[in-house]
Amino acid sequence: MNRFDYFNLFHKIDRKEYNLIIKNLKKKNFNKGETIVVPGETQKNMYFVNSGVQMSFFESQKKTHVIAFTYPPDLCAIPESFTQQKPSKYFLTCLSDSHLEYLTYDDLQEIFDKSQNIERLFRKMTELLVAGIINRHIELHSLTIEERFKAFCTRSPHLLQLVPHKHIASYLSINPTNFSKLFNSIKI
Question: Which element (helix H / strand E) includes 108?
């Protein structure tokens, strides 16, 4: 799906408005394992994923806790760091070679000033992000490990081939051994 069609899933914009976004895009490639944002750093760029898979996570007691994965045609950011221009509390890294395009925070604010419709688009995308986070929080606290695994497989089955299973297990808050058992026993 192209980016214009992707944006229009959230809120209708016309080509003129879309061009306000794409004319300011800059390109950046990251290698597998390369970090985009580290804790304490303020994210200055909103990335648009063209290829690759990225992961946000934090470390606690020598354990990785995965927050989210991004992949095409998603946006890629530490949302609260970018939107509030405050230091990040966690990492954003590339799980594979990634081709991204980006807008700086200042460029995006200028675009918002020029187009209320684009500002509305990003607000609606943010609202859906918040709803997704709340839904994930509910799933983590109310579903069994098998139900969480099945829900993930329904939403993002392609990630089973692209992301190391230990990261998916962390994302689902499932012990890696139990994840392996589920992966080998449940038909997807």
Answer: helix 105-114
Task: Report the alpha-carbon distance of residue 80 to residue 87 in Å, rounded.
Answer: 9
Query: Which residues are CB-neighbours of 40 under 8 A, at least 6 positions away?
Result: 87, 88
Structurally, the chain folds into a number of domains equal to 1
In this structure, is residue 79 part of a structural domain?
Answer: yes
Signed CA dihedral, 8, 12, 18, 24: sign only: negative
Q: Other C-beta atoms within 10 Å of 104: how many? A: 13
pLDDT tens for residues 145-157?
A: 999 999 999 999 9
| Mean pLDDT computed over 167-184 | 94
Residue 93: domain span:
3-114
Helix-strand-coil split of the chain, %, nearest 5: 50, 25, 25
The pTM of this model reads 0.93
**Cβ-contact 126, 132 below 8 angstroms:** no
The pLDDT value recorded for residue 163 is: 97
DSSP 32: T
